[in-house]
Amino acid sequence: MEKRVSKSKHGLRGCVVIPSDKSISHRSVMFTSLAKGKSIINNFSDGADCISTLNLFRQLGINIEYTGEKTLTVNSSGILKYPEQDLNCGNSGTTMRLCSGILASRDFDTVLYGDESLSKRPMKRVIDPLMAMGADIQSNDYKAPLRIKGKNLTGIVYNSPLASAQVKSCILLAGLNADGKTTVTEPYLSRNHTELMLKYMGADIAVNGNSVSISRSKLEPAVIDIAGDISSAAFFIAAGLIVPNSEIILKNVGLNPTRNGIINVVKRMGGNIEILSENTTSGEIVGDIKVHYSELNSCEISGADIPGLIDELPVIALISTQARGRTVIKDAQDLRKKESDRISTVATALKSLGANVEEQSDGFIINGKTNLTGGVELETFHDHRLAMTYYIAGLISKSEILIKDFEWVNTSFPEFETLINKLYS
Ligand code: S3P
C-alpha cells in the first residue's frame, strides 16, 4: 500500500494512549506458556510480530485464547508439545532468537523459519552460545531456517561481544532448562524485560551489574499488564518536537531505564519533554509523557547510550536533521543487522529528502538544521520503523512524500496512522 504524506498545517495536538510494548508482549506469551497453570496477559500487542509468537506457542500445544479485545488467557500444562509443522517467525527476530533458546532443550526437534528480511539476519550470535551449552542447531550458513534437535543443555559462562537483549534472553531461556548455572555478561546493559519478567514469575535469577545468572527453575503463572511501547511512542515524541505548533501527551508509556534513552537524548538536545506521572506495573515502570515543539541543538550519541535507544535511531536521525549543529551517532554498527540495514536505508532516505547526512560504518553524522524538501518516493524494505520515520518526515517536508509498502507498520504498530489523525481533530 502506498501512502502519501504532506506537510502538517497546524501541528499535532492532543493526547494518545500508546499501544502495547512489543518486547514485553513476546516475552509474556513465551514465559506464561512455560508456566504450568492459568495466566492472564492484559494489553497484548496486536502487531504482526507478536501474533507470530502467539501462533507459534499455539502450535507448540499451549492453549491461548483471547478473552478480551487485547486480553489473553494462557492455560498451560507447562510442557511444550512437538509441533506438526515448521514454526513461522514471520519478520520477528525476537521470536526466532528467543525461541531458539527455549526449543534447544526440548525432547523433540523443530524448524524455525521467517520471511525474506528475517532470513537474511545473523543467527550466529545465538547459535554459537547455544552450541556451547550442548545444543544441536543446523542453519543456512548461520541464517534461518534453524533446524533445532532437542538436547540436554549445560549452563555456561558467556561473555557476549554484543549488548543485545535477544542474545542475552536466548541464553537465559536456555539456562532456565539447563543443568547447572548459566551466566551472561554483556558490554553494556541491554533491555532487561526478560530478567524482570522471569523474576516476577519466580525464576532463580540474579542480576549483578551487566551480568545475569540463572539456574533451572519452574515458572509460576502470572497476571501481566503490559505497558505501552516507548519505541512506538518515539514517533509521537519526534512529531511533537519537530512539527511546529505541536503539543502531545502520550499515556501509558513504558519507561524502563534500559529503554528510555530517547528521553535522555531529547533532554540533552534541549527538547521540551516532561514525565507527568510514574508508577510500576508487573515489575515495569510506566508513565505519561508530554512533549512540545522545540528548538533543538545537536548532541553525541554513542557507547552505553546505544542499547537504550537502538530501535529509535532511525527517528532520532530524523530529529537530528532539525537540530542546530553537528549530531554524531556512533557505535551503532548493529543497526545494519535490523529488519533493514538501517544505517544505509535511513541515510539514503534522509539525504533524498534534502538533509545533510553522512553515512558512517557505525552510525551517522548529521548537520542541521535543514528544511526537508520532500517530493520523493521512499522504500520501506520490509521495515516498520522506516515506514513510520518517513511518515513523520513527511509532516515537515515542503512537498508531499510517497511511502511505498506502508503496510509494514503493522509489524509493530497497526494503530499508528489512526492515532496520528486523532491529533489533527
Ligand atoms: C529486542 C532487542 C533488540 C531490539 C529488538 C527487540 C528484544 O534487538 O532491536 O527490536 O525484544 O529483545 P537486539 O537484541 O538484536 O539488539
Structural class: alpha/beta
Poorly predicted sequence stretches spanning 5 or more consecutive residues: none
Number of strands: 26
Q: Given the structure, what is the number of helices?
A: 12
| Radius of gyration from CA coordinates | 21 Å
Shape: globular
N/C terminus separation: 24 Å
Mean pLDDT across every amino acid position: 97
| Percentage of residues in strands | 25-35%
The share of residues in helices is: 25-40%
Q: What characterizes the major β-sheet?
A: 5 strands, mixed
Bound ligands, named by name, code or SMILES: shikimate-3-phosphate
Textual characterization of the structure:
- By secondary structure, the protein is α/β, with parallel strands linked by helices.
- Helix content is 29%, strand content 27%.
- It is built from 12 helices and 26 strands.
- It has helices at residues 22-34, 48-59, 93-103, 124-132, 165-175, 193-200, 230-242, 261-268, 313-320, 342-352, 384-394, 416-422, and strands at 3-5, 13-17, 37-42, 63-66, 72-76, 87-88, 110-113, 136-138, 146-149, 153-154, 157-159, 178-179, 181-185, 204-208, 211-215, 223-225, 247-254, 272-281, 284-292, 296-297, 300-301, 323-329, 356-360, 363-368, 377-378, 401-403.
- The strands form 7 sheets. Strands 20, 21, 22, 23 and 24 form a 5-stranded mixed beta sheet that branches. Strands 2-17-19-18 form a 4-stranded mixed beta sheet. A 4-stranded mixed beta sheet has the order 4-5-3-16, with helices on one face.
- It is globular and about 60 Å long.
- The structure holds shikimate-3-phosphate.
- The site of shikimate-3-phosphate (S3P) has 10 residues, from α5.
